[in-house]
Design goal:
With 240 residues, the protein is an alpha+beta fold. The protein folds into 2 domains: 3-154, D-amino Acid Aminotransferase, Chain A, domain 1, CATH 3.30.470; 167-236, D-amino Acid Aminotransferase, Chain A, domain 2 (Alpha-Beta Barrel), CATH 3.20.10.10. It is 18% helix and 27% strand. It contains 4 helices and 13 strands. The strands form 3 sheets. Strands 1, 2, 3, 4, 5, 6, 7 and 8 form an 8-stranded antiparallel β-sheet that branches. α2 packs across α3. The longest helix is centred in the middle third of the chain and has 14 residues, at 76-89. It is globular, with a radius of gyration of 19 Å. The termini are far apart. The relative contact order is 0.17.
């Protein structure tokens, strides 16, 4: 989509195609140097590990226009570190953090026309995703992987905009359990949250609050965000 056709002051959190993406392939035990190419589809085997066993991970971050007109990122190296943490849990190859940050910056520069203006409240959402695209039959890690970084101009995640939202506490569904993969941003952790989210939205809530999987007594997180609370004048968030 041409950037000139976008109404940056009325964006939601929906997919809008931008110009350029970054792609790097892992074959024969190593990553290539990666490349920028036009955003678009790519071929994948029906036997790909990500399609059959969910071996995929991702990150989410934003580039914003500051008041002075500069384009800023918030600690992209931390996203690179977390990507590797998820990769380790899913038996996927690590990606050099410095190269990751450079790739993110390169993609943002190539899609700078899609960054919403400062006064719009919007941002350029950055989605790095790594998948096991090598074909596999038995339950084992793929031998080939692909890292893709693409961008989407977005507004507020919730339809309510930048306002307070209503949340429902659930004792029926859990998000993560001790010893599981809940700490990893793996694709297969997110599909199971769609049903609880749908049910809670049908009741008029914006999202769901998950409790701990052991006793359902302690707040774990919100379905699409971390949970923070001010307790005795201090900002607190669950360790889970």
């Amino acid at each position: 989509m041409d950037a000139n056709e976008i109404d940056f002051y009325n964006l939601g959190f929906e997919f809008i195609e931008t110009n350029t993406m970054f792609v790097s392939d892992y074959k024969n035990g190593k990553w290539d140097e990666g490349r920028l190419e036009p955003f678009g589809p790519f071929e994948i085997s029906p036997g790909a590990c990500v399609l059959n066993y969910g071996q995929g991970i991702f990150e989410g971050m934003k580039a914003l226009e500051a008041k002075a007109g500069d384009i800023v990122l918030f600690r992209p190296e931390e996203n690179g570190k977390r990507l590797n943490q998820s990769a380790e849990r899913m038996l996927m190859p690590r990606y050099d953090v410095d190269k990751f940050v450079k790739a993110v910056k390169d993609v943002v520069k190539q899609n700078k026309d899609y960054i919403p203006p400062y006064d719009s409240g919007g941002a350029l959402y950055i989605r790095p995703v790594m998948i096991g695209n090598g074909p596999i039959l038995g339950v084992s890690p793929a031998q080939e992987y692909k890292l893709i970084i693409f961008t989407v101009p977005v507004g507020p995640y919730f339809p309510e905009g930048f306002k307070a939202i209503d949340l429902e506490i659930s004792k029926k569904y859990t998000r993560a359990a001790p010893g599981g993969s809940g700490f990893a941003k793996t694709c297969c952790n997110y599909a199971p949250t769609m049903l609880p989210a749908k049910k809670t939205k049908e009741k008029g809530f914006a999202q769901i609050i998950y409790l701990d999987a052991r006793k359902a007594e302690y707040i774990d997180e919100v379905g699409t965000a971390n949970f923070f609370a001010v307790i005795d004048g201090k900002l607190a968030t669950p360790k889970a």
